[in-house]
């Protein structure tokens, strides 16, 4: 019984000593090894339009002996640095081409006339006698958007005409196409007034995008086509349905008109040839008679 009590007392004492040692170790690390627990991994997301300028702020004020390094990409290549108020910009990095500027008081990095190839991860490493830390910024650069182009899908003209006549509708169906070329990370949408009718999104690089819309000839509603990405948009307003959707001509009528035009052209060519031949043999007085 006595041995058991002594054993429990010894275990409690050892546990107390271990807890004291652990607390002392943590205090030592925090007080005498700054930077180990002071490291910060704050990710900031920045979206910017191609051609604009963007500033990646450090949110600190530099001291004389502080050192800041900016790195870019998965390989964390150094692109800019400041130490003791001396600024170094990597002139060998042809991607940025003199676009970088560093603030000598805060170490904030500015990228002027930014391009899509500047999309990526930027890492800031701060070294000081107060502790070391780092921050990360994820920059996404979006290309400038073109205006969407609206045309009539002529390949569906005959089928739309046939369906409307067979159904006995007073109007005629018309298929419109809203298109954009060389776009990426965008959404293309059709709107009727303020109501979304349909949309399609793409994340691939530099592709052509088209979205069809079936309307009725002489439709008086207001339609618009919108091309947008997360930070900008381009809208095609005031779509003239009557102008775009002229009634389709039946295929037999088109063939008849084409044949008649071809025959008339042949007759004209033969007539000109005969007149030319006749004028090459004038009468005795040197006159040329057309008939």
Automatic annotation (TrEMBL):
<dbReference type="InterPro" id="IPR007110">
    <property type="entry name" value="Ig-like_dom"/>
</dbReference>
<feature type="compositionally biased region" description="Low complexity">
    <location>
        <begin position="156"/>
        <end position="171"/>
    </location>
</feature>
<keyword id="KW-1133">Transmembrane helix</keyword>
<keyword id="KW-0472">Membrane</keyword>
<feature type="transmembrane region" description="Helical">
    <location>
        <begin position="253"/>
        <end position="276"/>
    </location>
</feature>
<protein>
    <recommendedName>
        <fullName>Ig-like domain-containing protein</fullName>
    </recommendedName>
</protein>
<feature type="domain" description="Ig-like">
    <location>
        <begin position="148"/>
        <end position="242"/>
    </location>
</feature>
<keyword id="KW-0812">Transmembrane</keyword>
<dbReference type="InterPro" id="IPR013106">
    <property type="entry name" value="Ig_V-set"/>
</dbReference>
<dbReference type="InterPro" id="IPR013783">
    <property type="entry name" value="Ig-like_fold"/>
</dbReference>
<dbReference type="InterPro" id="IPR003599">
    <property type="entry name" value="Ig_sub"/>
</dbReference>
<dbReference type="Pfam" id="PF07686">
    <property type="entry name" value="V-set"/>
</dbReference>
<feature type="region of interest" description="Disordered">
    <location>
        <begin position="152"/>
        <end position="171"/>
    </location>
</feature>
<dbReference type="InterPro" id="IPR036179">
    <property type="entry name" value="Ig-like_dom_sf"/>
</dbReference>
């Amino acid at each position: 019984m006595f041995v058991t009590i002594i054993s429990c007392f010894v275990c409690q004492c050892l546990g107390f000593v271990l807890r004291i040692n652990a607390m002392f170790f943590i205090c030592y690390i925090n007080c005498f090894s700054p930077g180990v627990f002071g490291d910060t991994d704050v990710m900031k997301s920045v979206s910017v339009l191609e051609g604009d300028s963007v500033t990646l702020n450090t949110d600190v004020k530099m001291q004389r002996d502080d050192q800041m390094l900016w790195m870019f990409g998965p390989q964390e290549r150094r692109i800019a640095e400041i130490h003791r108020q001396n600024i170094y910009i990597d002139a060998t990095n042809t991607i940025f081409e003199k676009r970088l500027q560093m603030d000598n008081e805060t170490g904030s990095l500015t990228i002027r006339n930014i391009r899509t190839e500047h999309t990526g991860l930027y890492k800031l490493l701060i070294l000081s006698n107060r502790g070391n830390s780092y921050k990360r910024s994820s920059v996404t650069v979006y290309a400038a958007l073109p205006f969407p182009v609206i045309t009539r899908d002529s390949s569906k003209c005959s089928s739309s005409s046939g369906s409307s006549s067979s159904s006995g509708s007073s109007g005629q169906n018309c298929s419109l196409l809203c298109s954009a070329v060389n776009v990426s990370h965008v959404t293309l949408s059709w709107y009727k007034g303020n109501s979304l009718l349909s949309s399609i999104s793409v994340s691939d690089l530099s592709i052509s995008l088209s979205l069809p819309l079936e309307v009725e000839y002489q439709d008086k509603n207001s339609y618009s086509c919108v091309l947008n990405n997360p930070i900008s948009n381009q809208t095609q307003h005031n779509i003239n349905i009557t102008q775009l959707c002229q009634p389709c001509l039946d295929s037999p009528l088109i063939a008849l008109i084409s044949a008649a035009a071809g025959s008339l052209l042949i007759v004209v060519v033969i007539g000109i040839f005969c007149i030319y031949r006749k004028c090459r043999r004038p009468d005795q007085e040197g006159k040329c008679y057309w008939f």
